[in-house]
Design brief:
Layout lengths: L1 H14 L1 H17 L5 H14 L4 H26 L1 H4 L2 H6 L2 H14 L2 H6 L6 H10 L4 H26 L3 H37 L1
């Protein structure tokens, strides 16, 4: 699928500037609303294509940040409106697993909307976190600010990297794959240590 998306993106950029921005906008929305979609890859590709097609890099960044922010805010409000129904919906169960959403509740109580910012640095949980922020009624103003801030930062970095490395943009993807693996391993180890500490604490208190 990734090869098809890359070919499609390259062709559309060369043929029609307006459709290019529309495609990029839809891509970033899909990254949030359908997490298996390779949105980060498209961001890096956007940076590279902006160079060879002479597209305005600032408009590309704004376009991507707006798309990510709006779709994330939509997801947050869906969670806020539906709440418990979200936890038991088939699509959430399929994509995430309801137990993960429940575990996020404690983090929101401790860190608030800052969890949304942190989640962008951990592969595959940003959409889940934004949805959970709505479900657990994280303050709307704080949630919106966190979403917009991290969306702009994330898109700025990846698009700029794609533009900077040019034809070597695929190298960034390989580096990100390695980063994602390490982050997942560290997260799993941290969770194991956390639960061990909880059990030890309970035994000491008993």
């Amino acid at each position: 699928m990734e090869g098809f998306i890359i070919d499609f993106a390259e062709n559309i950029v060369m043929e029609n500037v307006f459709l290019s921005f529309l495609f990029f906008f839809v891509s970033q929305s899909l990254q949030v609303l359908f997490p298996p979609y390779p949105g980060d890859m498209i961001l890096i590709l956007e940076g590279y294509l902006s160079e060879i097609a002479q597209l305005n890099i600032y408009l590309i960044i704004i376009n991507a940040a707006a798309s990510t922010s709006l779709s994330s805010i939509l997801l947050y409000n869906i969670g806020r409106k539906k709440q418990e129904r979200i936890l038991h919906s088939k699509i959430v169960t399929f994509l995430f697993g309801t137990s993960k959403i429940t575990k996020l509740n404690n983090l929101f109580k401790k860190l608030g909307a800052f969890v949304i910012i942190l989640s962008k640095f951990i592969p595959g949980i940003f959409s889940l976190t934004v949805l959970s922020a709505g479900v657990f009624r994280v303050k709307k103003k704080s949630a919106y600010m966190s979403i917009i801030l991290i969306s702009f930062f994330h898109n700025l970095v990846l698009i700029s990297l794609g533009k900077l490395v040019g034809e070597n943009w695929t190298i960034i993807l390989k580096k990100m794959d390695v980063y994602n693996r390490y982050i997942i391993i560290i997260a799993v180890i941290a969770l194991v240590i956390y639960f061990i500490m909880l059990q030890l604490k309970k035994r000491l208190l008993d």
